[in-house]
Specification:
Helix content: 25-40%
Number of strands: 6
Distance between the termini: 36 Å
Structural class: alpha+beta
CATH architecture: Alpha-Beta Complex
Radius of gyration: 14 Å
Order of helices and strands: HHEEEEHEEH
CATH topology: Aspartate Aminotransferase, domain 1
Protein name: DUF1801 domain-containing protein
Number of domains: 1
Organism: Panacibacter ginsenosidivorans
Strand order of the largest sheet: 1-2-3-4-6-5
Length: 126
Amino acid sequence: MFSKKSKPATIEAYIDGTPEDVQDKLHELHKCIRKAAPGASEGLKWGMPAYSYKRILVTFAVFKKHIGFYPTPSAVKAFAKELEHYKTAEGSVQFPLDKKLPLSLITKMVKFRVQESLTGDAKWKV
């Protein structure tokens, strides 16, 4: 996807550098995150699109068969019931490329992270 010489410098460049059949889904995810976290700073962290307020809210990356979404362990734990149909790890979720993105769930997770970032409260109610 990206060579060392052609590392993207923006989220849009990251998306533009992915396979065409994935780009619409990534633009949809980008738009969803921006709407749920208005005014968040945007950039690349560890080569992935990242959104931040006082600290990083979420990041994502595209892989061969899924989009890795990284909302931190607290968000994965808080939304464990709603994430039952997805492969998860301590701080990540895999959204299969052959399925629709669960945009309402992603919105809730991002808003959860916004609240955590602004208040420092990892116990915010879903």
